[in-house]
Amino acid sequence: MSVNKQLSDFAEEIIAFQRKNDLTDTEMALNSHVSVEHIHNIKAMREVPEPSTVASLRDYMEHKPNGK
């Protein structure tokens, strides 16, 4: 699978998670400890996220507590 396709899949995963949980980029950033700029750039596919950034976002998405 190409890097662009992987990024697209991860960007889509973030967007779907935000829609499901009614989260803005700012709320996602605060809760996942990843900067808003990184989240914007990942979703726009302007940035290849570092493995630690991916891990932080995935950890938050997998273990998000109820509420925001």
TrEMBL record:
InterPro entries: LBP_cg2779-like. NCBIfam families: LBP_cg2779_fam. This is HTH cro/C1-type domain-containing protein. It comes from Lacticaseibacillus nasuensis JCM 17158. The lineage of its organism: Bacteria, Bacillati, Bacillota, Bacilli, Lactobacillales.
